[in-house]
Specification:
Helices cover about 70% and strands about 0% of the residues. The protein is an all-alpha fold. It is built from 15 helices and no strands. Helix 11 crosses helix 14. The termini are far apart. It comes from Moschus moschiferus. Keywords: Membrane, Repeat, Transmembrane, Transmembrane helix. It is a multi-pass membrane protein. Belongs to the TM6SF family. Its main location: membrane.
Amino acid sequence: MDIPPLAGKIAVLSLGALPLSFALNYVSVLSYPLGVVLMSTLILGLLSLAIYSLSRSDIYYDPLYAVFAVFAFTSVVDLLIALQEDGYMAGFMAFYTKEGEPYLRTAHGVFICYWDGIVHYLLYLAMTGAIRKRKSYRNLGLYWLGSFMMSILVFLPGNILGKYSSEIRPTFFLTIPFVLIPCWAGLRIFTQTRVPTCCTPNMVEEVQGKGLLRRPVDLALVICLVFAAFFTLFRGLMLVNMFYVLPFYGLAIYALIFPGCSWLPDWALVFAGAIGQAQFSHMGASMHLRTPFTYRVPEDAWASFFVCNLLYALGPHLLAFRCLWRPAFFLCPPLGPPTHHEKQH
């Protein structure tokens, strides 16, 4: 998979979040929740107009260019929030976590912001760069889609049912477009043309004729996914994993045994993004000082906790890499020549 060059124009525009957030931190009207939501809406509106005026041809080519450009700006904001909450900087986004989204002050909220500010930000720059170069970004988009939707699946219940459920601010309603727009973006990404493979019908027939025991890499992946499924059952309290990840592991094992499951490469990328985001946030929050002591991983268990959860996150990424590396086994089997009986009729 070719990684497209990062979009320099979007990087420069998104970094404007630094001076802007620093200046807004000293605006008195932002000491009220309504002022925060109105100012946030105004900034996002002006940002969208600026992106449209600067990159009109790219937006006409692919409207997702504007979506990724706006989200790149918000990713920088999230990174500033995380760095401020951990004490690495001051004077930037204190007004927003106080009057906008208090949930982001939790350990899990901080690590959601770190992931969005680093991983998602790089993905946005890469995808907008691909659009500018008129190249495919489908694989990157699928990984981003899984990662983003997983963060939303945790973020929304955390706001509504968690510690800060009684402190929901008007800015919470800004999450509505941040839920609907990725759904629309995901549909567009799935319907994009797949990158053509160099697999000939003979190669597909030869690979798909091999049993699992003759494919040691796939056998190792099946064993890895079986252990991951048991690990998911062991952590049954994480309901998102139980309802979504566990069924996927079962389907992925099936697709590694029986050929022609063409859906697996796409969904492997989606679930790799989802598991990567979930594990990063879970591991970081479990060892963060803002997590209550009774729920925090003891320091003497950090090594085993880190290794187990890192291996758990690595499994779906290895599966996605295997699907992209040699996709012949997952392609639809070639149609064979008609039989002698068929020729007579």
